[in-house]
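User: I've been trying to design a sequence by hand for this structure and keep getting stuck. Would you show me what you'd pick, starting by listing the structure so we're on the same page?

Assistant: Good idea, let's start from the same input. This is the structure you sent:
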């Protein structure tokens, strides 16, 4: 069974997936979050979506890029959340 996060849940999902704590997801972290959400994409589909989500081509997915890819999958309804973490 898949768990569909709402817009308010996405920062939490992103933080849990961000194992490095650097506010960005590499391909492995992205794959882990997909598995946690119950998305069963093939390795090729995951790679393809990762590359499409990485709009600034830095090799990572920021929270904004993550939110955008989740929205394209219909998984991020509701108001825009502030983001994963606020650092002072």
């Amino acid at each position: 069974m898949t768990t569909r996060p709402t817009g308010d849940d996405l920062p939490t999902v992103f933080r849990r997936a961000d194992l490095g704590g650097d506010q960005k997801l590499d391909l492995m972290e992205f794959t882990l979050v997909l598995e946690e959400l119950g998305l069963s994409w093939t390795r090729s589909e995951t790679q393809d979506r990762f590359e499409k989500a990485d709009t600034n081509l830095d090799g990572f997915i920021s929270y904004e890029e993550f939110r955008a890819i989740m929205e394209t999958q219909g998984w991020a309804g509701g108001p825009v959340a502030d983001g994963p973490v606020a650092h002072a």
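That's my pick for every position. To get oriented when you compare it with your attempt: Strands lie at 24-25, 61-62. The longest strand covers residues 24-25.
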